[in-house]
Amino acid sequence: MIVFLIITLFISLIIGVPIFISLILPTVIALFTFTSMEPYVIAQRMFAGLDQFGLMAMPLFIFAAQIMLRGGIADRLLKWAGSLMSWLTGGTAFTTHFACMFFGALSGSSPATVAAIGGVMYPELRRNKYKEGFSVGLISSSAAVAILIPPSVTMILYGVATGVSIGSLFIAGIGAGIVYTLSIAVYIFYWTRKNDIGKGKPFNFSDFIESTKSAVWTFGVPLIILGGIYLGIFTPTESAGISTVYAIFISMFIYKEMDFKKLYKVSVEAAIITAQVMVLTAAAVVFGWLLTVGQVPQMLTQLVTDYGTSTIVFLILLNIVFLIAGMFMDGSGAIMLLAPIVFPLGMAMNIDPVHLGVIITTNLAIGMYTPPLGLNMFIAHGVTKVPIDKIIVSSVPFLVFGLIALVIITYVPSVSLFLPSLVYP
Q1: Residue 130 in contact with residue 390, Cβ under 8 Å?
Q2: CB crowding 15-26: b at 16 or more within 10 Å, else e
Q3: How many angstroms separate the CA atoms of 117 and 55, rounded?
Q4: What residues contact residue 109 under an 8 Å CB cut-off, 6+ apart?
Q5: How far out from the chain centre does Cα 46 lie?
Q6: Is the pLDDT confidence value at 402 over 80?
Q7: What gap in Å lies between CA 13 and CA 25, rounded to an integer?
């Protein structure tokens, strides 16, 4: 049964069958062929996989991200980042890079970050003499940090799949996100000097103050999410609801760039995205359940312990598996499919479950701009109209520095665990 499930899954993915069908179809066939269980079990398991309190945060964060994208929050954030960094050598590139980090901290969505930041900053990069390939690679790789720092939808799914505290994962993602961001910044520093990119306009303190005043309401979103969790005022799910209401309020009544008609349109967009993720999650839960019934996690755990695999070797294999998975499928699907399998292995190797989640998420963040199917590349193609083959080539240097960050995050656990140890001593 297990061999049938895995082979059928890979064949379906290779021939281009949608991921949720690739997961559910082999499960249905295997259930009828190899077991005597009733088919209604599939519906029960799909519902049970979605009927979890922690998962309620995901549609709310998706909704909040769409509101911030359409309600003027992203534009003000960009202007603030530009006033802070445009005076540096390569200032436009650094503005783009750190704006992606800031917007990722608001939205939790890597594709949304590509669309929001790329649409504005790509023309600006080209006007400032940045090469086409570098500009698109910068946007694709910088936006990937959005699924690493809170509020990360990918981390929510990992917490749901494994039972690990979502609050701890959010806090741990801050340190890892900073390491990733600084690693990419090193390449930006190198490239801009190698290509004689000059400084931007001089720093203007009055412009900075003005842009800060304009964006000050924007900063309330991460304060609500992280401050509320850090102080124990509310859970990640509750913070998602409060941040959504807050985003609606400032978009409609402070910035006044959203009316009820636009809010309805944004709600529909968010509902479609949520439905896509939820269907994928439910299908992956059923597939993972059948693997568990077939004792796959137990067999792999036994195999690892019997052969005395070292922690270093295990983490190398873990990174390889999730890097490859990130190349071919969305992070949500990879988490729901693979996390329940590798989680018991990580526990058998005495790896901290929060650290394990951060490692997995970092791999999937890199996968967002890794060929052949990195989602950020296709979003960037739609935004910039740069050919996919050029985007793939231009992403390679950013991939190298992303992998350097991955090595640091993997083998220096304190990067992930220092902040959670302060919040949850």
Answers
A1: no
A2: eeeebbebbbbb
A3: 27
A4: 61, 62, 65, 146, 147, 153
A5: 23
A6: yes
A7: 12
pLDDT at position 198: 65
Mean pLDDT of 355-365: 94
Asked which of 164-168, 252-256, 381-385 is least confident by mean pLDDT, the reply is 381-385
For residue range 87-136, what is the model confidence (pLDDT) as tens digits?
777 888 888 898 888 888 777 778 778 877 887 788 888 888 888 889 99
**How many Cβ atoms are within 10 Å of 284's Cβ, its own excluded?**
29
Question: Total domain count for the chain?
Answer: 1
Model-level pTM?
0.78
Q: Determine the Cα–Cα distance for residues 331 and 322; give it in Å rounded to an integer.
A: 9
Query: Which region among 145-149, 152-156, 298-302, 352-356 has the lowest average model confidence (pLDDT)?
Result: 298-302
Whether the ω angle into residue 151 lies within 30 degrees of 0, i.e. cis, is yes
Residue 5 falls inside a structural domain: no
Instruction: State the residue range of the domain holding 237.
Output: 13-423
Query: Shortest CA distance to 46 belongs to which of 271, 396, 336?
Result: 336
pLDDT, tens only, 161-183: 888 988 899 899 999 999 999 99
- Cα distances (angstroms) measured from residue 322 to each of 279, 332, 365, 425: 21, 12, 10, 30
Tokens of 417: 């665990």
Which stretches of 229-326 are assigned E, i.e. beta strand?
none
The three state secondary structure string of 116-130 is: HHHHHHHHHHHHCCC
141 found inside a domain: yes
Q: Are 177 and 142 in contact (CB under 8 A)?
A: no
Residue 137 has pLDDT above 60, yes or no: yes
The answer to the question of residue 336 being in a domain is: yes
73 and 102 Cβ atoms separated by less than 8 Å? no
Q: How far apart are CA 75 and CA 95, in angstroms?
A: 13
Q: For residue 319, count CB atoms less than 10 angstroms from its CB and return exposed for 0-12, middle for 13-18, buried for 19 or more.
A: buried
Query: Could you identify the residue written with the tokens 């190797």?
Result: 349
